[in-house]
Amino acid sequence: MSDYNIGAKIKKLRLAKKLTLQAVAKETGFSPALISQIENNNVSPPIATLSKIANFFDVKIGLFFIEDEEECRYEVVRKGEGKLIPRVISRSGTSQGYSYESLSFRKQNKKMEPFLLTVTEKAHEENTYSHDGEEFLFVVQGEAELLLEDDRLTLAAGDCVYFDSSLRHRLLSKDGSEVKVLAVVTR
Q1: pLDDT per residue over 41-65, tens digit each?
Q2: What is the per-residue pLDDT across 25-35, written as a single tens digit (0 to 9) for each?
Q3: What are the extents of the domains in the chain?
Q4: How far is Cα 152 from Cα 92, in angstroms, rounded to an integer?
Q5: CA 75 to chain centre
Q6: Which of 84, 85, 132, 165 is the most buried (most CB within 10 A)?
Q7: Calpha distance 147→171 (Å, rounded)
């Protein structure tokens, strides 16, 4: 996560608006402690958390994944060059059993954010998230279970789903084995 310095970018946005941790926490629904941990790069937030923070500051989520300020018109990310976000932590401070890799981190002002999600274990909690935008998920490897509102959908390699991100959702490993999913998120 330190490659992106996501925490410093969030802190810079907060300080530019002269807001306290408590004010950001109140408006986003997260605890001041979690905002502090994110700002200090102690934890990596789930994509849904980053999306809510981006919406609060009225910036695109891609801002958190750019390395420099120079705009590029296109971007090629070679195999193994994606930026990995490990240790995804929930609001309550528990591991979410997955990591994600940004597949586009140089191109600014994107309308969509592509990620490779890797679910490495069966999560003990089945809490769901919602945020603005839409999502497209394509299962590359393994068998996933998608919690979508009150439905449980089983998705195998080659299956895909497109949905409104305002629906409560959560991606899980069906049987605890590794699952890889291409996720494209819009704001």
Answers
A1: 888 888 888 889 998 998 888 788 7
A2: 999 999 999 99
A3: 6-186
A4: 23
A5: 20
A6: 85
A7: 6
